[in-house]
Amino acid sequence: MDFKIAVLKGDGIGPEIVNEAIKVLDKIGEKFGHKFNYEQGYLGGESIDKFGKPLTDETVELCKNSDAVLLGAVGGPKWDVIDPAIRPEKGLLGIRKALELYTNLRPAILYNALKDASPLKPEIIGDGLDMMVIRELTGGLYFGKKELTKDYAYDTMYYTRGEIERIVKKGFEIARLRSKKLTSVEKANVLDSSKLWKEVAIEMGKDYPDVELIHMYADNAAMQLVINPRQFDTIVTENTFGDILSDEASMLTGSIGMLPSASLGDGKVGLYEPIHGSAPDIAGKGIANPIATILSVAMMLRYSFNLTEEADTIEKAVEAVLNEGYRTGDIYSEGTKKVGTVEMGELIKERL
Ligand code: NAI
Ligand code: MG
């Protein structure tokens, strides 16, 4: 099959890590008989330098007319001084909005080979962690009615039934592809928006009898993530709880350079990017870890192109390289073999 991928390399380490991910994709194409066609767009600081704004209509059009978007990262000190209205991060919010991406998928995986990187005790980690946090991305406190005055301020956690249904549905569908266990996180003991959330989850659960549905309050979920993270497989939750819990879950793995993400909507275009930023402190040095971006490409194959075997192949290759002891600087520990960005990309490509 032929696929068109919009590539937004962005700033800092963005171009370095995206190049490695493309190498891996091309090898997958060769091996499985697909053709990936790339078209470059511009986002963030790079776009500000070229066009005076962090996101142009041309790049939005390019993304809308592609099968998926691969994004590196944006931002850096160079653009921190300029007008906040044209900051690089505005481009990021702009493209997510333009593509109506309301689902954010953040897997938190702790590989056996990297157990030492986790802040958790070995007995809590067991033989590794593998969970998926699904965060609603376009509703709740961030977008509800709000007001700020000198004396009072408020944000509203507003959700419609339709908004809850579509994200909970994604939760069930993704849980079905994993180990069929979905934890719906809310605070129905105090919040009305959560009462509606829970009601919808229970109703929709009837359509997914094969998926075990668990309800958990957000504060308890925060505790359970550190005392018993292995009970979780797929978590679905609203925007604010998801922001906090996805960051908490990812830090259990101790390695920001390893974690991919996907943002999906109802349209055909999904956006795939590492969770980390542009790492200006190490940009251009050839030492950034490309694995988060390579695993983002695996998510693209799985969630946008329905190419499960191809996605599995990439994930297994990453694990094999880690098991052989190869590490970039961010995950290096004594006794392992230190490699740079390009070398790590090559190793993974060879193991496919
Ligand atoms: P960051 O994620 O860029 O870096 C945090 C630390 O992790 C740094 O020490 C960095 O060297 C290290 N790191 C990150 N990714 C790495 C990788 N692949 N390999 C090895 N080490 C890695 O976050 P920070 O420093 O807060 O932000 C830097 C810039 O990135 C800022 O302009 C920020 O606004 C932007 N940013 C962009 C994001 C995006 O494009 N989605 C997300 C987060 C931050
Ligand atoms: Mg966050």
TrEMBL record:
UniProt: NAD(+) binding residues: 76-89, 277-289
Q: Which InterPro entries match?
A: IsoCit/isopropylmalate_DH_CS, IsoPropMal-DH-like_dom, Isopropylmalate_DH
* A GO molecular function held by the record: 3-isopropylmalate dehydrogenase activity
Entry's Gene Ontology cellular component terms: cytosol
The answer to whether keyword Magnesium applies is: yes
What are the boundaries of the signal sequence?
Answer: none
Isopropylmalate dehydrogenase-like domain: which residues?
A: 4-348
Question: What keywords were assigned to this record?
Answer: Amino-acid biosynthesis, Branched-chain amino acid biosynthesis, Cytoplasm, Leucine biosynthesis, Magnesium, Manganese, Metal-binding, NAD, Oxidoreductase
Q: Biological process GO annotation list? A: L-leucine biosynthetic process
Q: Residues that bind substrate, according to the entry?
A: R96, R106, R135, D219
Query: What is the purpose of this protein?
Result: Catalyzes the oxidation of 3-carboxy-2-hydroxy-4-methylpentanoate (3-isopropylmalate) to 3-carboxy-4-methyl-2-oxopentanoate. The product decarboxylates to 4-methyl-2 oxopentanoate.
Which HAMAP family does its entry note? LeuB_type1
What name goes with this protein? 3-isopropylmalate dehydrogenase
Q: Which organism is it from?
A: Sebaldella termitidis (strain ATCC 33386 / NCTC 11300)
